[in-house]
Amino acid sequence: KETTLLETSFEIDQITITMGFTKQILRAGNGALPRRGQRVTVHCTGYGKNNDLSLKFWSTKDPGQQPFSFNVGNGEVIKGWDEGVIGMSLGEVARIHCSPDYAYGSGGFPAWGIMPNAELIFEIEVLSFR
Prior knowledge:
This protein is mainly beta. It contains one helix and seven strands.
């Protein structure tokens, strides 16, 4: 099931620009949702290295990595995570496809192979929130 949670499109000189993210639920959670400001812990795998959405650039499941925690809705992470995770329930696994403005934007994240203005896909599992 794919749901477009936030998307804005407009045209400039016959080029359509889409901003926002889409979320595809891979496994439903228990229904309990985090509230803005709560500390959320997730497993995450990010795809989009070198502008190839099939290439992983990072995962909390890689050897030596741990689940990632952040205060949701406070701007501590990219916009696609902030707005995507706040709508995910405990135990849910979803694929979030972010447009560049909801990812790392014009600066990219070169250290991880994320090019400027790259679309990214994240597979996220909500482990806990408090």
